[in-house]
Amino acid sequence: MTLSQLVLRSMKKNIKHYYLYFFALIFSVTLYFSFVTLQYNPSVVDVSQGVKVAAGLKAASYILLFVVVFFVLYANLLFMKRRSKEIGLYQLIGMSKGLVTRLLVLENTILWVSALAIGVGLGFLTSRVFGMVLLRILEKDVLVQLIFSVEALQMTIFVFLVLLIVVLIQTAIGIRRVSLLALFTANATADVKVKRFSGLQMFLGFIGLLLIGYGYYLSTTLFELESDNPNVLFYKMIAILVSTIGGTFFVFRFSVAFILNLIRKQKRGHLSIQDVLSLTPIMHRMKSNAMSLTTITVISATALGILCLSYISYYSAGSTAKLNIPFDYIIMNDQGEGFIELLNEKKIEYTQTDIELLNVEVDTSAIYANDMPAGLNMVTKGPMIITKLSDMQKEMPGLSLKEGEGYITGYSSMMSEIVKLEENKPVELTTSNGEESITIKEIRSDSLLVYYVTGAGMSIVVTDEQFDKLKADAMISEQTIWSKQIGIDLAESAQLKEVQAIYEETTNNGHFEVTKDDGTIDSVNMDTQEAYRLSMLDMFGLVIFVTGFLGLAFLMTTGSILYFKQMTEAEEEKASYTVLRKIGFTTNELMKGIYKKQLFNFGVPLVIGLAHSYFAVKSGWMLFGTELVAPLLITMGVYVILYSIFAFLSIGYYRKVVNESL
Amino acid sequence: MTILSGRKIRKVYGKKSTAQEVLKGIDMEVQEGEFVGIMGPSGSGKTTLLNVLASIDKATEGVIEISGHDLRTMKERELSNFRREQLGFIFQDYNLLDTLTVKENILLPLSISNISKKEAEARFKEITKTLGIDDLANKYPNEVSGGQKQRTSAARALISNPSVVFADEPTGALDSKAATALLSNLEKINRDKKVTIMMVTHDAVAASFCSRVLFLKDGQLYTELYKGEKDRLRFYQEIMSTQSVLGGDGYDA
């Protein structure tokens, strides 16, 4: 029998073992090739600011490469482990290590070449789908061409060729390590080394839970800085990372076994069949599984956190735009008459909201809560925009004020995370006749003022009488640059595009200016709400696409690795299933225990990962957008569903093994 | 009283073209309280016969009844329950679960029965005492010796008070001292508790503990020997001489 015959025969026999590894390879090639192709797809590159998209995709492809390398090497390692017996057997019958290596090199090369071919074919098709998804996210109506990029092919072949060489080296080292002695004791060493549980372990298990709790606590107080050292934030972040990651490892390594051991001890030897199949194997495998479970948990938590944050940015594009530009169109100081006339002329329906504005110097030091961070030099005295109650009531009918009272509006969630304000405290308005005190009745996050005017800061609402009094003040009217904001909301959002053109035409692209008495010109360039939203989409659309894509890759790899591990575990435990079925337990009785076990194996990393990412997102989401709940739930929901698929796959595999065990 | 009976048991492995007939129509009966040994050369179908009788494997043809239950008419689920409640098993390589302690292993067959914890505890105490492993309860299998493992396995087989215990080469992996200890234990349990035991073995010493020994050859019942009132040594010599006639598995002496 020649070497090639032997290779073909062993491949045929091993097809069951191969398909897992083969699938992993095809998956990696498909993902990589389609992603690289996307970089070279003209319809994708041309559509946005060319360079930016390409650069973003390129950066992402490096991260993807990292994922792929990690995944392929891990899959190969598992694959080698499963075949160590076969490799030993070849040597036992007298083949030299060199020959066995050549055999495996040949096998691997055949496998890789075919995986590369299939993967490139699939990637060619999927890259168009990915391209369409990307453009859909960016809200661009462009037809994506199906292109085959030679550069992408070269790149993919090069990368996977290098990876193949690495894998071959890994394989060769693996073969060198297999000793014939190990062949005979292979099962004994593969079997779980059963050990007793010491008091120290129990203690460490407890520490693990504490560490995670402490990390979570730190993350909720991330921005509450007590010291004026600017590095404190950084140190805090490091502390959070160390304690949660360390805690995760401790939990997997010690806490789980510790808790399960307590449960087991209570049963005093009277274990149910479900305990036998879930409790005890989990306990005893925790030592070897802790590292990989920790890695998987941390990776999925990171991926999930980033995914959530970028989705929050994307999802919030509309509401952020509305927050910053509260009306579809805004014109200042009656300088947009032409715009309104043209709207009337074209019989476009709209509602108009006029808000009068005043610039007043305000001292707000009293409303800041005492625990203001010392490091933050908050300006507590400065010019603020004042509006009047009746104007605001047009859009916010719930408002009402007594004399001497006022509202603060535009206290954003991001601001609220960093500085705490207190209601029922006075602010001092500076007028030409001294200071005028106003008690703040309520601090509200919503605002009706465009951020170009308020500088994304807070503004104050006062009663109409108070406003008129201030308006009559010569000093204040001198300070006031923008005296009126006119907001236009369209009745039909379908007309947004048409009106956008009118707006740009009649207001000189949203340019407003005021010439002051001393001849200086104050000007502002206003965006429309829709234009602002689209620019946000452009910015975050690519981010969400890239992170979504990478998140998916991470999810698929971690899910597959868990699945592969479970396949191996199922085979290792087959002997136990045989015993149990001989003694007289049915497949269904065994499966009940296995459901429990899989609930644990997949559920615990998932739950801990979700909790980690929840706290990570919670601590900093306000820097990314204005909506938390919906994007968080959607991202996590999708993640849970995809993840469960792997759990169900593994259960299916277990069922097969249990069925075959008798 | 007949506890186990088999009529014309045939077992064929493989598909039509490659079919191999391992059991070629075996008739047998086992009375309650017997200690039956099954011997024969390698490939004579000893283990297959045991598996078929124990409902682990399905006979191609033939009728098998154990304490009045016809195995053929029972569904997969009923068979499992039947095995758990009525039969006990001892295997050559112990087949203990490494992740369970000795006690947990022994109590395993009771885990989904209605037997109360108190009753289970009492049975556990009694059996481990009889087998001399009562001080090992909280040890893991890898912490005890081969003989102790096999006695654990025997205790597991006996805990459910089965009507028949099947043992497949129980002494195969033990040294002669441990083997003798185990067999004496089994013999004692068989005698005192009237537990019916069927044991496959190729070891004539082990077989000499039985009250009756069946010899298989090429899938057929070749002959059988009764111990009767003979002492163990005489019985052993008889077994040896039958074995040498049979050829194959015996020691050439």
UniProtKB/TrEMBL annotation, chain A:
The chain crosses the membrane at residues 18-40, 60-79, 99-126, 146-169, 197-217, 237-263, 293-314, 539-564, 599-617, 629-654. Residues 60-170 form the ABC3 transporter permease C-terminal domain. It is a multi-pass membrane protein. Keywords: Cell membrane, Membrane, Transmembrane, Transmembrane helix, Transport. InterPro entries: ABC-4_Integral_Memb_Prot, ABC3_permease_C, ABC_permease_BceB-typ. It comes from the Bacteria. GO terms for cellular component: plasma membrane. Its main location: membrane. GO terms for biological process: transmembrane transport. It is found in: Cell membrane. Belongs to the ABC-4 integral membrane protein family. This is FtsX-like permease family protein. It comes from Psychrobacillus lasiicapitis.
From TrEMBL, chain B:
This is ABC transporter ATP-binding protein. It comes from Psychrobacillus lasiicapitis. It comes from the Bacteria. One of its GO terms (molecular function) is ATP binding. Residues 4-243 form the ABC transporter domain. Belongs to the ABC transporter superfamily. It holds the Pfam family ABC_tran. The keyword ATP-binding applies. GO terms for cellular component: membrane protein complex. Keywords: ATP-binding, Nucleotide-binding, Transport. The lineage of its organism: Bacteria, Bacillati, Bacillota, Bacilli, Bacillales.
